[in-house]
Structure formats: structure tokens, C-alpha cells
Amino acid sequence: MDVVKILSTDTIKALKFSDKEIDLTPWDLQYFSGTPNKKGLLYHHPVVSNQIQQLKHSLSYALEFFQPLAGRLKITEHKDDIISCSVICNNAGVLFTHASVENTCVADILEPTYVPSIIGSFFPFVGVKNYEGTSQPLLAVQVTELVDGIFIGCTFNHVVVDGNSIWHFINSWAEISRGSCHHQISKLPILDRWFPDGVQCPIQFPFTIEPQKNHSDGSSSSPFDEEPNLSERIFHFSKEKILQMKSNINKQIDNTIKISSLQAILTHVWCSFVRSKQFNPQEETHNICLIGVGPRIVPPLPEGYFGNAIIGCITTMKAEDLLKEDGVCNGASEMNKLIASHSNEKIKNHYKSWLKNPNIIKRSSKPKDNFLLISSSPRFDVYGNDFGWGKPVAVRSSNKLNGVVSVFAGIEEGSIDLQIRLPFNILEAMGNDFSS
Prior knowledge:
Blueprint: E1 5-12, E2 21-23, H1 26-29, E3 37-43, H2 51-65, E4 72-77, E5 82-88, E6 94-100, H3 106-110, E7 139-145, E8 150-156, H4 163-177, E9 204-206, E10 231-237, H5 239-252, H6 261-277, E11 284-292, E12 310-318, H7 319-323, H8 327-340, H9 344-356, E13 371-376, E14 394-397, E15 404-409, E16 416-422, H10 424-435
Parallel strand pairs: 6-7, 11-13, 13-15
Antiparallel strand pairs: 1-6, 2-5, 3-8, 3-14, 4-5, 5-9, 7-8, 10-16, 11-12, 15-16
């Protein structure tokens, strides 16, 4: 495998900052002990003179608008292992790494069905936990030169941002880089978090802080990050295929509900996963969708809300019910009904319940193998990120968790790509299942 060579590292800071302190919500704090969110873009354009400097310069301007990303977490310890956490916009800075690989081309990343293992080396911070954001950057960027292109990999602390906020930032950074007038952006971020009346801030919750590792080189090792026998495969669904899937399901179900394109795809993937893994018919399997709460609460969160605003929505069914002739329709209907049930009242009750019994998502080196976790969205603008040398040709993520399904818009209008991480034999069986 080609070796990534680090050419330089810098700390990029906003030209101006406010020293603002931002309290965090349960939607943020649920990721406290998890791992960062990693998203990257591939460009078929070799690095030219001053291009790296242009990216650094535009990043410093972008951070003026998105100051939490240049800050650090502040953890306050109370008695009996009770802590609270906030974001300090102290402009401690973003890690910017310039790297290169000698023998890897754009085609080596773009063309294979399986994601090459070197992709993991295109992102900074392996093994860092979100709570280490007290000393580690909340955003780290690595620009890796390929033979005939570049890969921009971004590692975001998940306590600070969700997928929607990640792409808001990247879209804005690209807008400035390609020559935005007076370094302005089209959509301003709203940095203040949402708290119902009566919530005491900062929120306190039980947690034992582990000793932090030394990540001076931007990397570390852990059993979780080195989980063996997993591969990542790209599944592409054309606009025509998606419409066919959606139409077939909607013709067969109760016409009081309407299955969306994404729900149709995800249910087909769920059924294929169950078939390919050969579940026991009575075994329960779970499809976990991360849904946005912003438009579902009353009044809705403002456009540009910058933080986490997602909760898990878990559809559970027995394997045999997904393997029946009408299994896809049953699965799609259950998923649709559950997502639709997340009303203003249900979401606010979920928020208040978390305050009474905080639930911090834990990452295990031996995750259960009976679920799929759906993350990201085809609605995010990934292919509009022109930094001044053209649009990207692919998007990739890096996630070590078994069963993760990362959803992205495909490069052709109306298409959708899924990046799925599972054991190789299951991915092979799913590939055969979809081609049959």
C-alpha cells in the first residue's frame, strides 16, 4: 500500500474571534464519548502553486463565521463524577496538514467497488475521542496530494456538529475559497443552541474522564480503530432504479402513507443485509436512522442552526418478516410510520427524558452485528464544493463501526450512493443480491 507522507502541519486561526462560550444540548452531549465525524472530497485536479496557501487563507476567513470549530471543549468536573461541558470559542485553532502519496491516482480511489484502505490515512486523528476536544482541535483538515488530484479530508468533533452543520461549513469554506465577494457567505450559521424553558445550563451529567492519550502526531491506536475483517463498499443507485424501487413499494402498500426514495433504498438494503447474513428467522434486526429534529419541533430550529440536531430512530423487525414476499413493503411501512411519529411533542419528551437519564453513546470494539446505522443524507450539497478548481468527483467518509451506512448524493442528478461497512463476505453477497 502507498504510504502517506506528511509535508507540513500548521494551526489555522480565525482572523477575528469573540471568545464566546456555548452551552451544549443533549443532542450534542450524546456523542461525548464517541469518535469524530470524518468526511472527505476527491478532486481530479493536481495541486498547483499557491493552492495550499489559498486553502489555508480561505479557511481562516471561514472560521470567523464558524468560530466553535476553532475553539476547544471546556469540561467542568463537579462532585461524584458529574461533569458539564461547553465550547469555548478561544481561537485555539484548526489543525491543517499537507500530505502526499507518490503512487496513488484519482482512479485508484474512484473506480474500485470497495473503498481502498488508504482512505483512512487521508483523515487526521485516528483513535481520538470527542471528549478529548479540551486539548485536541475540534476540526482537523488534511489535504493529500495524489498523482493527478487531491483529497480534502476533514475530521470534525461530533459533540460540536452533525452532518448538516458539517456540509454547511464546507460549502461556506468552498464559497470563500473560489472568490466570494468580500469573503462573505450565503448562509450564516446560528451558533446558539436550543434549550426549552427551565433547562439549567450548562447541563450536568455523569461521566468518568479517562486519561487522555498523547496525539501529538495526530494519530493513535485502539482496538476499535483496528477492528478486523471489515470492508467498505460503494453501492450506486441510479435515478431510474430509485424511482422503480419507490414505485413498486408504493403500489403495494396502504395509500395513506407515501414511501420516500430514501426509505425505499434503505429498506431494500436492510432486506438484502438480512438475506446475506442469513439471520435466524426469529432473530430481531434493527435499522437505525438518524433523523433531523430541526423542522419537526415547534417553532422549527432556524435555518443555519449550527450544532447537533439529530436523534436515533430505531425500526426493529424479525428477520422472517423482512424475508417474506412482502418484506420490503413491511419494512418500508414500519420505517415510514416510526419516522412520521416523531412529532414536536415526542421530540421534546425525548429531550426532557435525556436530562433525567443522560444517555452517552458508547463505541465498542465488538459492536453488535444485527443492525444497520444510517448516517448522512442525499440532501447535503457535496458536489457543489468548488474551491476554485472545479467540483469534486467523489465523496468518502471514514467510520470504523460495523454496520454503518453513509448516504450521499450521487454525482449524477437524482442518484444516491451508499458507503457500507460490513464483513467482506456479507458485502459480496449483498452485491450479488442487488445484481440478480
